[in-house]
Specification:
Elements (H helix, E strand, L loop, with lengths): L1 E3 L7 E4 L15 H12 L6 E3 L2 E8 L2 E8 L10 H15 L1
Parallel strand pairs: 2-5
Antiparallel strand pairs: 1-2, 3-4, 4-5
């Protein structure tokens, strides 16, 4: 899922969906996790920050600032994770400007 973050100078949010746990690591449900891992590797960042029930990282991709998020909830509950992280990030971003 790619979302442009309004009010943040064109920052993009990339959320990779999947299921946590080793038993799901290479299943079709984790295609989003695997894709996000490849993007993070390409950008030389690690998804290690825990915010809003997600592993997160900031990166630059093709000259654009991007925010990467990998929910730590199961795929069918991912809607509980990324809005919390996004709200947390957005409030911190507004305080800096």
């Amino acid at each position: 899922m790619l979302v442009e973050v309004k009010g943040t100078r064109g920052v993009k949010l990339i959320v990779g969906l999947g299921n946590p746990g080793i038993e799901y690591q290479f299943t079709p449900h984790n295609a989003g996790f695997l894709a996000l891992d490849r993007i993070a590797e390409h950008c030389n960042v690690t998804l290690a920050n825990r915010r809003g029930r997600a592993l997160t990282a900031k990166a630059t991709l093709a000259g654009h600032e991007v925010l990467l998020a990998k929910p730590e909830t199961y795929m069918n509950l991912s809607g509980l994770s990324w809005p919390l992280w996004f709200a947390s990030w957005r409030s911190r971003s507004r305080r800096r400007t």
